[in-house]
Write a structure and sequence with these properties.
- The complex is a heterodimer of chains A (about 290) and B (about 280).
- By secondary structure, chain A is an all-alpha fold.
- Chain A has 13 helices and two strands.
- Chain A has a two-stranded antiparallel ribbon.
- In chain A, helix 2 (about 55-60) packs across helix 13 (about 265-290), helix 3 runs antiparallel to helix 10 and helix 5 (about 115-125) packs across helix 7.
- The longest helix of chain A is centred in the first third of the chain and has 34 residues, at about 65-95.
- Chain A is globular.
- Chain B has two domains: about 1-60; about 65-275, MetI-like fold (Orthogonal Bundle).
- Chain B contains 13 helices and no strands.
- In chain B, helix 1 crosses helix 12, helix 2 (about 55-65) packs across helix 12 (about 245-265) and helix 3 (about 65-100) packs parallel to helix 6 (about 145-165).
- Chain B is globular.
- Classes of the chains: A mainly alpha (about 290), B mainly alpha (about 280).
- Chains A and B meet through helix 1, helix 3, helix 4, helix 5 and helix 6 of A and helix 1, helix 3, helix 4, helix 5 and helix 6 of B.
Chain lengths: ~290, ~280
């Protein structure tokens, strides 16, 4: 469309608020983050910061606590992403079969998604308490263990709670995404497969899965980003205890910045995380586009 | 057909089994909020309180505290303001990107996609520095521009998609009648993209309503807290956590979300579905 002078101004007026918000609250912080990561920047040096080159990055990568947090985040992502995708897809497949109560199921399965992270984390913290309901069930009712499991006092216990929560909260979202995807699969494909005598399992692997590949990749990208973004649940449930063994990348970053005041270190850590995630997402998006063509 | 009924029953059994696991934690929260506070350390723990034991004392306590009303209103104020601002700003931007070519358009769009990918938490350190500079520490209203900034990229991206589905002929007709870009935006785009804008706004409301790390970082004052911060404030305050209070307040905090969800269900699902197709 040809732009006359008047229209140019009108377009500018419509764009201006958005661009201002981006410039001040996103662009500036991104640039600032990059700059801060090269400086010794802490509570004591608000006015005068020393340029220390790559020292913050060296500190991050030689830090044992960071490595634990990094490994924890990878484990969290590797467990919760496939976990919630498989369960969400399963629920979607079942829902696609039933003719009654569809909406009721959909609403109830979606409840955890709209429950806030703070509330959901507290419920899990309470259920997994050493004297809590779950331990009572495991020891006194089904006698799986002889004594209460101290979930909150060990690294793996704490991580387990966070991962259970992550999967529990994510099933509903995956269900909706895959439900929409399943509805786009042409029924003729299934009919053709039936005529060829294909079993339900065969139909799933040879008709359903290839047809919803795009949606699977979409969910994979979104959930991987979400997995690295894990913060509130771990902060509320274990707060990194015992001894920072259950910290995730972002809870460790937050601790370093706001509890110890080492903003330079946290800036370097944040910058690395952001860049790695951006690269990862671009690769995944490229894969997605190739599959579509 | 017999086989079909069997499949139906099997599917229902599996769905209900799954549902029990999904809903149980929520039920436990509600049942705990109805137990007298003394019973929270009982042994053996019981899922449901006895009928004659059910009490509203936790709810009464929450309702007797003035600060929780203020926290609730704070949450409403911040969430509603940021949702409305984002809807307006993102619609304007989405409309212009979808309809016009202008210098820097490609760069702007690439930037929008980039900010959708990078987790907001990674910017918390420089944003804190910015908040200090802007004198926005411990200010409730100052939460709003930050929430707008976090939701605007995704919103613009989605709304641009919705606008592209609106036929261009309508714009042309308005321009022919001598209408301006603003007329098109107000009288053609906004009404027609409404369902899309609504679905995006529901997600933005959820995001702002439950936001924890940022509000927890910049707000110190009891009376300026939003609800998630108020709920987490029960920890560390007392020797023993008053779980009954925690969950009673949690139930209150879930009510607005549930209402929004129930009344806007059709937008909710439509938004998710289109998001998954467009990617």
């Amino acid at each position: 469309m040809k732009l006359t002078g008047k229209r140019k101004i009108q377009i500018g007026v419509l764009l201006l608020p958005g661009i201002l918000v981006f410039a001040i609250f996103t662009c500036y912080p991104i640039i600032k983050l990059f700059i801060m990561s090269f400086f010794e920047w802490n509570y004591g040096s608000i006015l005068d910061q020393n340029f220390i080159g790559l020292q913050n990055y060296i500190n991050v990568f030689s830090d044992e606590y960071f490595r634990t947090a990094f490994v924890n985040t990878i484990i969290y992502t590797l467990v919760t992403v496939p976990g919630q995708m498989i369960l969400g897809l399963l629920v979607a497949l079942l829902l696609n079969q039933v003719t009654r109560l569809k909406v009721t199921y959909r609403v109830l399965y979606y409840l955890p998604v709209i429950t806030s992270w703070v509330v959901a984390s507290l419920i899990f913290k309470y259920v997994f308490n050493t004297e809590g309901m779950l331990n009572y069930f495991l020891t006194d009712i089904i006698h799986l263990t002889s004594e209460n499991i101290r979930w909150l006092d060990t690294r793996w216990g704490g991580l387990c709670i966070a991962m259970f929560l992550g999967i529990w909260k994510g099933i509903g979202w995956n269900m909706i995404v895959f439900l929409a995807a399943l509805q786009t699969v042409p029924t003729e494909y299934y009919e053709a497969a039936s005529i060829d005598g294909a079993s339900s399992v065969k139909k799933f692997f040879h008709v359903t899965l290839p047809c919803i590949k795009g949606n699977i990749l979409f969910a994979l990208v979104m959930l991987t980003i979400g997995g690295f973004n894990v913060y509130t649940s771990v902060k509320m449930i274990t707060n990194g205890e015992p001894g920072h063994q259950t910290d995730m990348i972002l809870t460790w970053m937050y601790h370093k910045a706001f509890n110890t005041g080492d903003f330079g270190y946290s800036a370097a850590l944040s910058f690395v995380t952001a860049v790695v995630l951006a690269i990862l997402a671009v690769i995944q998006f490229r894969l997605m586009q190739n599959k579509d063509n | 057909m017999k086989k079909n009924i069997k499949t139906q029953i099997l599917c229902h059994i599996l769905l209900i089994a799954g549902l029990i696991v999904v809903v149980l934690p929520m039920l436990y929260m509600i049942s705990t909020s109805l137990k007298p506070n003394g019973a929270l350390y009982e042994f053996p723990p019981r899922f449901f309180p006895d009928l004659d034991e059910i009490t509203l004392e936790n709810y009464q306590y929450i309702l007797s505290q003035k600060k929780f009303y203020i926290n609730f209103l704070n949450s409403i104020f911040v969430s509603v303001s940021s949702v409305l601002l984002t809807a307006l700003i993102a619609s304007a931007m989405g409309f212009v990107i979808a309809r016009f070519n202008f210098p820097g358009k490609k760069f702007l769009f690439a930037f929008i996609v980039l900010t959708m990918i990078v987790p907001g938490m990674t910017l918390i350190v420089p944003q804190y520095e910015l908040a200090v500079k802007l004198n926005a520490i411990n200010s409730l209203a100052a939460l709003i521009p930050f929430y707008v900034a976090w939701t605007i990229a995704y919103s613009t991206f989605m709304i641009k998609g919705f606008v592209e589905n609106i036929p261009k002929e309508l714009d042309e007709a308005i321009y022919m009648d001598g209408g301006s870009v603003f007329t098109v935006f107000r009288h053609a785009i906004l009404p027609l993209a409404k369902p899309g804008i609504a679905s995006v706004s529901i997600f933005n409301f959820l995001t702002a309503w439950e936001e924890f790390p940022w509000a927890n970082t910049v707000i110190n004052d009891d009376l300026k807290r939003t609800l998630p911060i108020a709920i987490s404030g029960f920890f560390g305050q007392h020797q023993f956590t008053q779980w009954g209070y925690v969950f009673a307040l949690s139930v209150f905090s879930l009510v607005p979300i549930l209402l929004v969800f129930i009344f806007c269900q059709k937008f909710f699902v439509a938004g998710l579905a289109s998001g998954s197709v467009k990617g």
